[in-house]
Amino acid sequence: MKQKKAQWPWHVLTVLVLIGLAGALYYATSLMSYEWRWNRVPQYFAYQAEETQRAADISTVSELVRKGGSAQVTLRNEAGDEQHLTVDENSLQFAQGDDVAEGDVVGVTRHWAAGPLLWGLWTTLWLSVVSGVLGLLIGLATGLCRLSNNPTLRDLSSIYVELVRGTPLLVQIFIFYFFIGTVMNLSREFAGIAALSLFTGAYVAEIIRSGVQSIARGQNEAARSLGLSAGQSMRHVVLPQAFKRVLPPLAGQFISLVKDTSLVSVIAITELLKSGREVITTSFSPFEILFCVAGLYLLINLPLSKIASRLERRLAQSD
Amino acid sequence: MIEVRDLVKVFDTRGQVVRAVDNVSTQVAKGEVLVVIGPSGSGKSTFLRCLNGLEAFDSGSVSIDGLQLADPKTDINAYRREVGMVFQHFNLFPHMTVLENLCLAQKVVRKRGQKESEAKALALLEKVGIAQKAREYPSRLSGGQQQRVAIARALAMDPKVMLFDEPTSALDPEMVGEVLDVMKNLAVEGMTMVCVTHEMGFAREVADRVLFFDHGKLLEDASPAEFFDAPKDPRAQAFLRQVL
Question: B215 — contact with chain A (CB < 8 Å)?
């Protein structure tokens, strides 16, 4: 009889190993005399932006109403024209009846604004989504072309896949931006997305092709024998089954794509990594910021793989 | 109804030339049940697959109700919807329920509405005796049940002809009977059928004619009584001595 052993001691060991590693890391950095300043990090996610409010003309403060933290200031110039300003109360520079010169700062208004790291995260997100969707469409079309009976479609798609898979993405991004981008006058975002989606498309094409080929021939034959055309059979019978099979490698490809968007920082698209590096130059806290950047990539990718495995389980209900 | 003339199918793989169907001519009348018998590799399955164009033949002609299969003007999909086919390995669509399996082609090819196709599907499932499994996925069904669903799926298209490619060869012995019963009922109802099978009992009982194939050649074309009791061809005599 097979004995069922308790699993929890091993999980405890795992936690101990992780704690040990973290402790070793902490000790190593403490030897390096690096000053950790995590308190500086939040401002790069979101901060209170200040907008200064200035007087338009030489005038006097004719009216001043304080209300719940803000102050409404009315300025009147010699001609009798009025200017109304609302500023934060604690930034108010004048009192009732004061004279104000043209361009004087009356006060500031404050509002929350997204910091560079959040903007970088947003750029990375939309770059990933747009190139992911385009890559999926390109890959689907190319994958089906590789399975086509038409020799031209087959050859062209094979050449595309081999060219893209055989060259580094970084080189492709440079070529797209500096060569094709210059010739066709493309914006850097367009060049970046084009390079990323063509790169992803080539890999997705191979994933789709292998998935379609893994579906037993009898499935297509059964569909065709019922009178479905080749396209209908592909759409209703083969692709749904193939999709289920290629979901894990497809999810892996999209996770790769999210990470690969960091490469377009070389053509000065301010995505997550580039914003992180810009923040480092002003904050002088390279380690904290780099850890944050890595954490933000994880924040995108962990849910992505969670969604994929959930989808996989839902599609498995017919097994 | 089915007219086959000088049908030739040659497989040429790496220099190995096999004449899988070698100059076969025959015809099937409306309502007739044809059973095709022969040793493995005799070309009987290939012959059957040529009848609905799953296998492209090299020369000769196949026609159903005067519609020529090899004619480039013939819409192969329109041709196939008149010819139902049942496979050895069922080939049900595993990602769809039994009901969806039966409705897909009705909707996509025959353009029937949801209600109409479901009513038709349920009636057919009732007929093959598994109406209670309509909402199940094929993987939950036994082999015999799957094959009956496959028959119902082909029938849902209202075909003029049914082709059976060894429908009981992949089944457990105790499930063969239920599938053969469905086929017998079909024959009684007057369906035109061509069956490739190793079930000699079925051939003797149901067939109007028996075709015997070996090495791609049609060696014997006779009534079951004639074929089983007094086969003329020496190869058919040897074959029957082995299987009976």
Answer: no
Residue B99 touches partner A, C-beta closer than 8 Å: no
pLDDT in tens, chain B (244 residues): 899 999 999 998 888 888 899 999 999 999 999 999 999 888 899 999 999 999 999 999 999 988 898 888 889 999 998 999 999 999 999 999 999 999 999 999 999 999 999 999 999 999 999 999 999 999 999 999 999 999 999 999 999 999 999 999 999 989 999 999 999 999 999 999 999 999 999 999 999 999 999 999 999 999 999 999 988 999 999 999 988 7
Chain A partners within 8 Å of B95 (Cβ): 240-241, 244, 315, 318
Instruction: Give the distance from residue B139's alpha carbon to the nearest chain A alpha carbon, in angstroms.
Output: 6
DSSP-based three-state secondary structure for A75: strand
Cα–Cα dist A184/B226, whole Å: 80
**CB-side neighbour CA atoms (13 Å) of B183:** 34
With beta carbons less than 8 A apart as the criterion, state whether A53 and A99 touch.
no
The answer to whether the CB atoms of B92 and A222 lie below 8 A apart is yes
Question: Which residues does A173 contact at the CB level (< 8 Å), separation at least 6?
Answer: A191, A192, A195, A196, A263, A264, A266, A267
Which amino acid belongs to residue A161? V
C-alpha dihedral (A266, A270, A275, A277), degrees to nearest 10: 20
**H or E segment at B168?**
none
What tokens were used for B121? 């599907």
Q: What phi and psi values does residue A290 have, to the nearest 5 degrees?
A: -65, -40
Q: Which of A225, A228, A247, A319 to mutate to test the interface with B (most CBs of B within 10 A)?
A: A225
Report chain B residues whose CB lies below 8 A from the CB of A219. Answer: 91, 93
Residue with the two structure tokens 């199918």: B9
Q: Which residues of A touch B93 (CB under 8 A)?
A: 219, 222-223, 237, 241
- B60 close to B68: Cβ distance less than 8 angstroms: no
Nearest CB neighbour to A228, from listed B54, B92, B105: B105
Please say whether the beta carbons of B157 and B109 come within 8 A. Answer: yes
CA nearest neighbour of A106 among A92, A120, A124: A92
Residue A247 forms contact with B (CB below 8 Å): no
ipTM reported for the complex, 2 dp: 0.91
The beta-carbon neighbor of B157 closest among A221, A227, A241 is A227
C-beta of residue B92 within 8 angstroms of C-beta of residue B148: no
Could you give the CA distance from residue A45 to residue A295 in angstroms, rounded to a whole number? 13
Run of H or E residues at B155: helix B143-155
CA distance A257 to A127: 10
A149 in B contact zone (CB under 8 Å): no
Listed by number, the residues of chain A in 153-192 with a beta carbon closer than 8 Å to a beta carbon of chain B are none
Contact B243, B231 (CB under 8 A): no
